[in-house]
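User: Can you predict the 3D structure of Peptidase? Sequence below.
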Amino acid sequence: MTVDKGVIGLKEIDIRELGFRIGNAEDRDAGTGVTVIICEDGAVPGVDVRGGAPGTRETDLIDSREMVEKVHSVVLAGGSAFGLDASSGVMRFLEEKGIGFDTGVVKVPIVTSAVLFDLAYRSAVKRPDLAMGYEACLNAYPGNYEDGSRGAGTGATVGKVMGPQNAMKSGIGSAAYEVGSVRLGAIVAVNAFGSVYDDGKLMAGPRVAGFPVSTEDLMIRGMEAKFRGNTTIGCILTNAKLTKSQANKLATMGQDGFARAIRPVHTMVDGDTLFVMANGSEETDLSFLGTLAAKAVEKAIVEAVRKADNLGDDILTCSQVNSVKLKHGLDTF
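Assistant: Sure. Here are the predicted structure tokens for Peptidase:
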């Protein structure tokens, strides 16, 4: 890591400055979508799957014991297990561009993915598919990625211990930092069972009398985790030079950001999954990088909730709840 004059400073940057191509595609009427992250030359992957109900594709090859050293895309999608179909569209797009693992007879794009459950939000029959995955790839090239209720976060909600009707709207968020010559960012689609916190302050959760409350408190009082349509999924991006073993450890450390911002997290009704894509040559300390990753993941989760859009229904956003609080002279978040 190169740092001018021995002074380390933390600088916030845009996630699009990390050199990856990021694109969203969605069906807002159906309340679902796809976010694709592409690295044409391949990136060293890592993954950490913590939730009790994950939906993933090609995560076994990320194990450090396996042959393939790089992936070309990480796909985050709604649609539960049906949404894994979106990866086929990403594979088709990458194959057309000649991107993939060279087998000698054909280049095979290495595409790994994770899905969240948004089927209870709007439509259970319109899900991300090959066409939507391909569209997300097309949208990755203009560089117009945006946070909010877009892409994989289109149908995302949080705080569902009292059922989806009492949840709050969420989306997909990002955060990125630069320290010296090291850059790291995170993109997270937040569809958590639990409540979301910003620096310890409750932002979003199940609504009682119109306002969010602590999921933990409700569960401690005896409410069971019955609703199974959840899961937070994301990816850490960095220009650090990592092995697969190191990238996997970075994913594990990055999950601390989940635990800081979501309570409870990694439950049996979540499929929480966090990927890593490392595409650079910057040598740096892994403990430092993990600290930065947890910070970026935590902020990305907060941004996913803060920038969520109301799609014309009764599932309120953070900003809508804040407006009601202001009218009643209550503290906002």
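The chain has one domain: 19-327. The helical segments are 86-96, 130-140, 215-220, 244-261, 286-306, 318-327.
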